Each structure stands twice: as C-alpha cells, then as structure tokens.
C-alpha cells in the first residue's frame, strides 16, 4: 500500500535525503555483549519497557508507511534483539506490503544476534523479509560465549546463518565488531571461514556509542589495518558502492571468491551522505546514531493527528537535521556529549 499524501520535500540542512529508517521493535536482548549491553548496567534489576510503552505493530506500520511516502526505500528491523518480539512475522508481512510512491516494494531487512534465527528463518522469508544481518564477533566458542556473556554457543549462530541462506534471506551479512586485544587476532580466521560461502563479512570499528561500554580509542582496530592484514594473504580489489549513503566500504577477493566490507565508524566518518534515521522501541525518532536526545512520535501517533500531520512533523524534523558527530569526534573532549546507548536505537 502507498500513503496518499501530497509530496513533502524532505532534505536535511546538508542536503541529505531520508532513505533508510531503522526501527527498534524491542529494547530487550537475550545477550549481554560486553560492548553493547554489559551485565554491570543491564543486570537482573534493569527495568525494560512495558509492552504498552512499545509501539504496536499497527503504529509501526503507520509510521513506516508515512516514512516511505517521504522517500524512505529501506526499512531495517532492530532491537535489542528483534526476534524476541512476539509475532514479529506479522509485522514483517505488514511492512512487506508497503510500496513507494513509484509502486516499488521497500527493501526490508533485519539485524539479529542469530539466537532464534535458525527456527524462524523460513517463516521470516515467507512473511516478506528480504535479508538478514547477523552479529558474530568470534569463531572461538569460549571467546564468543565470553563476549555474549550468557554462554550462548557459536555453533548455533553459525547454523542460523546457514539456515537463513537456505531460506533465501541472503546474501547473509555478518557483522563483526573488532576490539583490540579481544578478537582482533581472528581477522584472518573470520575472513577464511566466510570466504567462498556467498556470505558477506563486515568488520566494524569499535564505536563510542553510549556510555556503558567504557570505550577507549586505543581499543579501535582501524579498517585500514584490517584490509592490510587480509590483503597480505588474499589480493583484494575495491568495489563500487551499491547505493548512496552506504556505510561499508566494499572489497572483492581478486580470485572471485566473494566480498568483504569494513565500516570505519571511527577513522572514516561517513556523515556526508548519511540518509539514516532511527526509531526506538517506544517511538522516539533519532536522526543520528550518536544523538543526545530523540523526538517523541508515539504521542503523535496516539493523538488525533492524521497521516499528513505526522508526515509534516517527520519531514520537518529531518529538514532541520544537521548531525555530523563522526566528523567532529576528534575535536570533542570525553563527556562533551551525552549519547544514547546503541542497544536502545539498534545500531
């Protein structure tokens, strides 16, 4: 379905369009990854949102439909862990039915830790999900369990990746957050494991999102170092981006055995062509991953506002956007800016 509203110009203060909306469907996760939701902060007494506080599927569908009418062509479901949201297949089928003003279906993807993906992959595909990205930070079981901090075995995530590919949710992307002294010794092992499989491995620089992970710059493994290490074993050739605003720099193996990517979230700011907005599970809009605060859209959705009112509000928020945190990072002192936790807005 396409929303019937008059065209509204949506471009931020830097001329960047709104093309990609990332929607958190839950603030809960069954992992306690040390760089994202450490137990010291997200322990047994941590108060997650009540179900009534979360956007309903109907509200998410309505908001997504309005966003698509404003130019969004890609929707990504995140969390927390999105597969913890009961009935997620229903939401996917609702979103898969959306059409752009040109009549094209949206690109519908999901980021998951893979813990429930093996048993849900076929149903997710049938509901209309196009692709999945799976977080995987180590191939070593002991280390993987230490990182997720709930003793979840790596073999189950690897099996989930294969199940997703078999279900047609590919090419599956695998996101690995590198932290020096923790898992940077596995760069080549990870590259070898996924080379030739059809999956796309992407190495992400450890980011200063939120305050829970005690981020330090010397723990960042620069993307240039990653490419150098892999190139020493396998010749790589740079690949052109597939779309405007793509965060990953893509590289092909020269022998045709696949692709890898690097996301230089610290050493190579990509603010210049960023087209992404994020909605938290309870309906707050964030125009930057490193935002200090968001804007409540849930109240608007639950008011008597019509679709055009909401479209004008959403478009107006984007038109005022001037975010470029990654470009400014080096000039900021620690504590200069309060940042929202990554787990809250889905990365």
Describe the overall structure.
With 347 residues, this protein is α/β, with parallel strands linked by helices. The protein has one domain (20-345): Alpha-Beta Barrel (TIM Barrel), CATH 3.20.20. The protein has eleven helices and twelve strands. Strands 7-8-9-6-5-4-3-2-1-10-11-12 form a twelve-stranded mixed β-sheet. The protein starts with 19 loop residues before the first strand and ends with a helix. The mean pLDDT is 90.
Q: Output the structural class.
A: alpha/beta
Number of helices: 11
Low-confidence runs of at least 5 consecutive residues? none
CATH fold-level name: TIM Barrel
Write out the strand line-up for the largest beta sheet, numbering strands in chain order: 7-8-9-6-5-4-3-2-1-10-11-12
Question: What is the CATH homology-level superfamily?
Answer: Aldolase class I
Q: Could you tell me the number of beta strands?
A: 12
Order of helices and strands: EHEHEHEHHEHEHEEEEEEHHHH
- CATH class bucket: Alpha Beta
Average predicted local confidence, pLDDT: 90
Roughly what percent helix? 25-40%
End-to-end Cα distance: 28 Å
Instruction: Give the domain tally.
Output: 1
What would you say the CATH architecture is? Alpha-Beta Barrel
**What summary fits the major beta sheet?**
12 strands, mixed
DSSP strand (E) fraction? 15-25%
Large-scale geometry: globular
Radius of gyration: 19 Å
Key descriptive features of the protein:
single chain; about 350 residues; alpha/beta; TIM Barrel; twelve-stranded mixed beta sheet; 11 helices; 12 strands
């Amino acid at each position: 379905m396409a929303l019937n509203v008059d065209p509204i110009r949506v471009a931020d203060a830097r001329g960047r369009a709104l093309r990609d909306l990332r929607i958190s469907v839950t603030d809960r996760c069954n992992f306690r990854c040390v760089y994202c939701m450490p137990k010291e902060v997200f322990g047994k007494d941590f108060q997650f949102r009540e179900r009534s506080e979360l956007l309903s599927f109907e509200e998410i569908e309505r908001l997504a439909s309005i966003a698509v009418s404003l130019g969004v062509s890609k929707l990504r479901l995140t969390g927390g862990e999105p597969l913890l949201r009961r009935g997620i297949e229903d939401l996917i089928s609702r979103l898969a039915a959306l059409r752009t003003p040109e009549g094209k279906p949206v690109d519908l993807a999901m980021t998951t830790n893979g813990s429930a993906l093996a048993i849900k992959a076929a149903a997710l595909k049938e509901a209309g999900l196009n692709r999945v990205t799976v977080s995987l930070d180590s191939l070593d079981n002991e280390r993987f369990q230490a990182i997720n901090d709930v003793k979840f075995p790596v073999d189950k995530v690897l099996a989930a990746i294969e199940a997703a590919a078999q279900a047609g949710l590919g090419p599956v992307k695998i996101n690995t957050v590198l932290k020096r002294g923790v898992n940077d010794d596995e760069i080549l092992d990870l590259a070898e494991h996924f080379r030739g499989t059809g999956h796309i491995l992407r190495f992400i620089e450890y980011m200063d999102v939120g305050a829970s992970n005690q981020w330090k710059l010397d723990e960042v493994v620069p993307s240039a170092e990653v490419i150098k290490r892999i190139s020493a074993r396998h010749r790589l050739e740079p690949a052109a981006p597939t779309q405007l605003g793509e965060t990953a720099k893509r590289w092909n193996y020269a022998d045709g055995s696949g692709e890898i990517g690097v996301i230089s979230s610290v050493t190579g700011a990509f603010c210049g062509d960023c087209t992404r907005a994020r909605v938290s599970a309870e309906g707050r809009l964030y125009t930057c991953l490193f935002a200090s605060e968001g804007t409540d859209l849930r109240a608007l959705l639950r008011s008597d506002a019509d679709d055009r009112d909401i479209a004008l509000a959403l478009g107006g928020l984007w038109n005022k956007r001037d975010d470029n945190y990654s470009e400014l990072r080096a000039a900021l002192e620690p504590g200069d800016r309060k940042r929202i936790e990554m787990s809250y807005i889905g990365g």
